[in-house]
Amino acid sequence: MAARGLRCVGVLGTRQVTGSLLYGQLVQTQALAPAEIEAVHSAYVGMATSGACTPDARALLFDEGARMIEHGAEAVLLAGTDLGLAFDGYDPGYPVIDALDLHVAHLVALAMG
Predict the structure, then answer these.
(1) Confidence class of residue 20 from pLDDT cuts 50, 70 and 90?
(2) Which of 4, 57, 80, 92 has the fewest Cβ atoms nearer than 10 Å?
């Protein structure tokens, strides 16, 4: 995140990820957790187990992301592989960084290098 010039990001994911602010890995970038950590966790687990995102879950995730943007986040980090079910093909109205894309890019760089 720091390499992208981001000073503050919101983090969406399971309660373990959001409660620990990405396991404490963001040291140069401030991280914000959603206000409704348990509701976000439940929405995430529901998507992960069903393979689909309900309109209510999408609305919750988008709203929590917007709240973090209102509180100073410059982008929202989707810190869970299943969050694409809610965000892919939709515009929440704020910048989103999908951690899955970051992982893939890193693995490609390792394979090429």
Answers:
(1) confident
(2) 4
Q: State residue 8 phi and psi, 5-degree precision.
A: -150, 130
Confidence of residue 110 (pLDDT cuts 50, 70, 90): low
Read off the tokens for 87. 């965000």
Residues 28, 91: Cα–Cα separation, whole Å? 27
Sign of CA dihedral 102, 16, 72, 26: negative
Domain ranges, residue 37: 2-112
Give the global pTM.
Answer: 0.86
- Number of domains making up the chain: 1
Question: With b meaning 16 or more CB within 10 Å and e meaning fewer, what string describes 40-74?
Answer: bbebbebbeeeeebeeebbebbbbbbbbbbeeebb
List the CATH number of the domain containing 10: 3.40.50.1860
